[in-house]
Every structure is written in C-alpha cells, then in structure tokens.
Amino acid sequence: KEYNGPLVLCGIVKEFEKFSFCMCNPPFFESIQEAGANPHTACGGTLEEMVCPGGELSFITRMIEDSLQLKGQIQVFLGNVGQTKYSKH
Prior knowledge:
By secondary structure, this protein is α+β, with helices and mostly antiparallel strands. The protein has 3 helices and 2 strands; from the N terminus they run βαααβ. The chain is elongated, with a radius of gyration of 14 Å.
C-alpha cells in the first residue's frame, strides 16, 4: 500500500546529522478501530503511535525507501514487524 502519512525519516533528519542506528517499532494498524479489534493489542499507545495511513506495511515500506536516501547518514536501520502476514514481504 502507498504511504501518504507524515514524514518518517526524510525531511526530519537534517543534512548535517549522522546516526549510528535508527530503531523503529512502527504503528501496526490502519485505524484505531482495527487496533481495538485485535485481542492481542494492549492499546497502550497514542493514536500516532499505533495508527498509520496504510498500516504497518506502508510505514515499513516508507522507512525502507527513506533508508536508501539516508544511507550515508544512518549506518544501521532496524524495525519490528508486528503482524506475521508481512514477515514474508
């Protein structure tokens, strides 16, 4: 799915900044309703922490795209995948 949400890394990381790593626990759901419907969700986060336009796959895809542009500034990119249906993408 296409990501149309707020910037993930590009536009936030400044040209002069360098980082050893970037670690992410992405928003897992497309809507707060989807989060509430999942019995394994603690719903302990804010809307911004749990929900992303396009859901988890879109967020992770955007982060990967951003990593290609920022590879000279961030040495290692780490991200969790919360939904097993995306583990084979």
